[in-house]
Amino acid sequence: MAGQGSGGNVIAAICSFFIPGLGQLVQGRIMAALMFFIICAVSYALSATIILIFMWVVGAIFHLWSIIDAAKFRSPA
């Protein structure tokens, strides 16, 4: 990736928009991708239950964070 604002980061951010963590996976950051995907998936699944309906807020925050993280990533070099 060339850096912040590059075409690769835009594609990664679009990927994270559809599936949280996919943008990080495209960038080669496997642990970040797993973290975002698992937290969002668990939060959204728990919000499907009537008891923990407020968990969608946590999922939405982490989903948005994964999009921003993919868009602002700068590769170390």
Structure overview:
- By secondary structure, the protein is mostly helical.
- The chain is 69% helix and 0% strand.
- It is built from four helices and no strands.
- Helix 1 (7-18) packs antiparallel against helix 4.
- The mean pLDDT is 90.
- The chain crosses the membrane at residues 7-26, 32-65.
- Keywords: Membrane, Transmembrane, Transmembrane helix.
Tags for this model:
0% strand; 77 residues; membrane; transmembrane; transmembrane helix
Could you give a short description of this structure?
Helix content is 69%, strand content 0%.
Whole-number tally of structural domains: 1
Question: What general form does the structure show?
Answer: elongated
What's the count of strands? 0
Regarding quaternary structure, what we see is: single chain
How are the SSEs ordered, and which strands pair?
Layout: H1 7-18, H2 22-26, H3 30-47, H4 55-72
